[in-house]
């Protein structure tokens, strides 16, 4: 993947990893994370493009393909942010379908709604934006034919509750596609996993945070590193999905192992 | 505003479609919500909470809910919306 083929830095030099000198507290609780995503909302889309060199668009298309959403379906995108996945779902379900897009950040939703207004495709009119909590979804049981969560599950404090809610609102047989950073199971016996883990850390410390600092958002993107370390591995995500009731759960590594996508079937 | 499909009626006051209001439930009780144009909100009668609609976006995070203080608050809202197409 050309976008991520950077040369490894020399470890012989005296350069230290960038450290944050901010006194901003870690985003531990839901309110902190909500505030964080409100702060980054104005530059979120631009930074996504810049930091992934546009590859996030490919990964999101893959995520939508995996949940097998069809024309006429009613789909939900949880943790929709500025709406990338919602727009992709909308193209799939068409004007006869419906997309409900939920996020806990008011600012992200405002940007998503503004983007929707600026779009000319008729199918985009079928998206409804909801401010809500992934751990307390405002939908009845068996409401949706397909679901996505893109770069959201990692940021949810009570992930089990969120998965339980997702299970309940899906119709039997329907799938959820959960895209996020991949937490490698780094071990001495897994050279490739160690490389991915090192490369991920390096990317965040030397690419992501310095670029984000140019937008005065260094702390917010430093959160990314700790959130990945606290996230679940692919196997753990599969196990969690089965524990809350999904009949099938399969995790796929993509983006040279930097990203991963869980596909779970109700 | 009538949607292009000709099926949905968007509330002039709240800006959310009647169809959307019908599929939403209280995030805490999972009971149906009642749309109130007078207060521009969605009412959870089961627990006496009002969820605001701001710039056509329903705010259904539990912490956004406003506890209705009295029966007067509950009764001051409109009667349940009926769909018209």
UniProtKB/TrEMBL annotation, chain B:
<protein>
    <recommendedName>
        <fullName>Protein preY, mitochondrial</fullName>
    </recommendedName>
</protein>
<comment type="similarity">
    <text>Belongs to the PREY family.</text>
</comment>
<dbReference type="Pfam" id="PF03966">
    <property type="entry name" value="Trm112p"/>
</dbReference>
<dbReference type="InterPro" id="IPR005651">
    <property type="entry name" value="Trm112-like"/>
</dbReference>
